[in-house]
Amino acid sequence: MSIKGNKGKSGGGGGKEEVVTRPPPAKGAVAASLVVLDGLDVDALVLLIGEDERPLTGAAGLLDWRMCGWLSQQLLAGAFRGARGEKVLTWPAGRLAVPAVVLMGLGKTAEARDVLGATLDEVQKVLEAAKLARVALGACVPAATVEEALATRPQLKERIKTLLEAQAP
């Protein structure tokens, strides 16, 4: 999918046309939105967050908005950085219908595709330990990339009831 727009001064005067290419949306993914987050009927919302993903985007940015900046406060305080291997189990303080939120660090976003499989294996372990059977998953990488990595992880794929697209198509 490509989107065309004018680059330059507002009003469209004199700027070169810029074409922004986005990957096609994943087959089973849902575009992250406040309406979608508010309607989730799962045991937990799992977010894979990059340590250099600032500002937060996709489902993480929406969760931060819904929680009045709480996630950004945690990042600024260093309580959670998004570093690879970090895990936080929290609750959304009544601001979402889901009873739990799992934050997992994905490391540098440029390397996220390389470590996604190992991170998803960690997600599976966390879900088993916390006895979370049905989850929604959002990541700072395209949902198609997540779907590809889930193809070899059928037990985890079965637990994921909603896959949230990183950016609206």
Description:
By secondary structure, the chain is an alpha/beta fold. It has helices at residues 34-38, 58-66, 70-77, 112-129, 143-150, 154-159; strands at residues 2-6, 17-21, 29-31, 44-50, 87-90, 101-107, 135-139, 160-165.
Key features?
Leucine Aminopeptidase, subunit E, domain 1, disordered N terminus, two-stranded antiparallel sheet, alpha/beta, 8 strands, 6 helices, 169 residues, six-stranded mixed sheet
> Residue share in helices?
25-40%
Q: Rounded to an integer, what's the Rg over CA atoms?
A: 17 Å
- Dominant shape: globular
Assembly level: single chain
The CATH superfamily title? Leucine Aminopeptidase, subunit E, domain 1
* Range of strand content: 15-25%
Could you tell me the CATH topology label.
Answer: Leucine Aminopeptidase, subunit E, domain 1
Count of β-strands = 8
> Termini distance?
8 Å
Residue-averaged pLDDT: 86
What is the number of domains? 1
In the sheet with the most strands, the strands line up as: 3-8-7-4-6-5
- How is the main sheet built? 6 strands, mixed
Assign the structural class, choosing from mainly alpha, mainly beta, alpha/beta, alpha+beta, or little secondary structure: alpha/beta
CATH class value: Alpha Beta
Label the CATH architecture: 3-Layer(aba) Sandwich
